[in-house]
Design goal:
Elements (H helix, E strand, L loop, with lengths): L13 H6 L2 E7 L6 H11 L11 H12 L4 H6 L1 H6 L4 H17 L2 E8 L11 H21 L5 E9 L5 H10 L5 E7 L11 H9 L4 E5 L5 H10 L4 E4 L7 E3 L7 E3 L1 H8 L4 E3 L1 H7 L10 H6 L4 E3 L4 H4 L3 H12 L3 H14 L4 H20 L10
Parallel strand pairs: 1-2, 2-3, 3-4, 4-5, 5-6, 6-9, 9-10
Antiparallel strand pairs: 7-8
Helix pairs in contact: 2-3, 6-7, 8-9, 16-17
Bound molecules: inosine and zinc ion.
Inosine binds next to helix 4, helix 5 and strand 2.
């Protein structure tokens, strides 16, 4: 049935996108600092290696975006040395965590899983446990303050192990110890080429025995073998990025669906494996050429369980709203499409099923319905 007014099927305005409830599954704590916070923490702590003088946060923000805009994941990752450097104390970690929650809430995010690697925050003498507790405290404080401002948001932590290092089992155990205390799952990140996920099999097998959840960065800088290992050897619940699954899909207008799926792509789609896609980040690391040519358009059309994410808000100068705006512009997405991405993300979250369902039915759908019905009252129908 076509709708009586063109409005609901139009590309939503930035203001509508901002107000739409959003769900974020892939966001790095050490990739989402406010530039001014990086500058202030550096000044406070006497960190002298910032690439730009600490009294110019705007230039600092620009530096992060430009340095990350490198065309390679390895160079992109070098910028994290500066954010991690100023996140080595309890107070700094709690502050960064609190601000992340407030920034997401202000952007209309209602549920987020934020990840970080505890092993990268030990230089100031904190233990792994103290790192997790500092971040948890910051998240809870952020939730309280956001609620006091009328923006309710729920946040869970994902503990990341660095794939080039050898602490993944230890971090998996840490995630398991804190699983009912703010931590909802586990991840591995870092340079992909040369560091296959199977190096960390003991960590994944441990988490499976504990009935815990994990996602794996795979199919970003490296292709199908990485995705295949993450799913079939490691047993990942979700894929971080996963964009290279496109290599197993052949576009063919004569095929029934307009494309032919290889065995792995078919498995990913048919098993409803959630793909945590991060379009802007992919443009920066060279994993995609442009928004218009980003694989998300094809994958959404083929019914993969695609979600939209920010990855690193500082390095990509982005937000959930910005990612949605770019995609809406590139693919003519309507509020229905944005709701579809959002429901996909909520279905794929690592919190209990009843809570995911309540978020979908009692928060996400009613608010999208409200947004979709606004045209009725805008005078356009008369
Ligand atoms: O897109 C990415 N691919 C792989 N690793 C990443 C990406 N973004 C951030 N990190 C890595 O994850 C660590 C913990 O948050 C960051 O310090 C960074 O090294
Ligand atoms: Zn990432």
């Amino acid at each position: 049935m076509t709708r009586p007014s063109a409005s609901p099927s139009r590309v939503p305005t930035p203001e509508q996108i901002l107000r739409a409830p959003k769900v974020l599954l892939h966001d790095h704590l050490d990739g989402g600092l406010r530039p001014a916070t990086v500058a202030e923490l550096a000044a406070e702590q006497g960190y002298a290696n910032l690439p730009v003088p600490a009294d110019d946060p705007e230039a600092l923000g620009r530096w992060f975006r430009e340095a990350a805009d490198s065309g390679s994941l390895e160079r992109y990752l070098e910028t994290f040395a500066h954010t991690c450097a100023v996140m080595q104390t309890r107070d700094a970690l709690a502050r960064v965590a609190r601000e992340a929650v407030l920034d997401l809430a202000a952007d209309g995010v209602v549920y987020a899983e934020i990840r970080y690697a505890p092993e990268q925050h030990l230089e100031g003498g904190l233990t792994l446990e103290q790192v997790v507790e500092a971040v948890n405290d910051g998240f809870r404080e952020g939730e309280r303050r956001a609620a006091a401002e009328g923006r309710r948001i729920r946040v869970g932590a994902l503990l990341t192990a660095m794939r080039h290092a050898a602490r993944s089992l230890e971090i998996a155990e840490l995630a398991n110890r804190y699983r009912d205390r703010g931590v909802v799952g586990f991840d591995i990140a870092g340079a992909e080429a040369g560091h296959p996920p199977t190096r960390h099999l003991d960590a994944f097998e441990y988490l499976k025995r504990e009935n815990n959840h994990f996602t794996i960065h795979a199919g970003e800088a490296f292709g199908l073998p990485s995705i295949w290992q993450a799913l079939q050897w490691c047993g990942a619940d979700r894929l971080g990025h996963g964009v290279r699954i496109i290599d197993d899909i052949e576009v063919d207008p004569k095929a029934p669906e307009g494309a032919r799926l290889g065995r792995l792509a078919a498995y990913v789609r048919d098993r409803r494996v959630p793909l945590e896609m991060c379009p802007t980040s992919n443009l920066q690391t060279g994993a995609a050429e442009s928004y218009e040519r980003h694989p998300i358009g094809l994958l959404r059309g083929l019914g993969f369980r695609v979600t939209v994410n920010t990855d690193n808000r500082l390095m990509s100068g982005t937000s959930m709203s910005r990612e949605f705006e770019e995609l809406a512009r590139a693919f003519d997405y309507t509020l229905d499409d944005l709701q579809w991405f959002t429901v996909n993300a909520m279905k794929s979250a690592f919190i209990p099923f009843n809570e995911r369902l309540a978020m979908i039915n009692d928060v996400i759908k009613p608010r999208y319905a409200e947004l979709r019905s606004e045209w009725l009252f805008a005078g356009e129908s008369r």
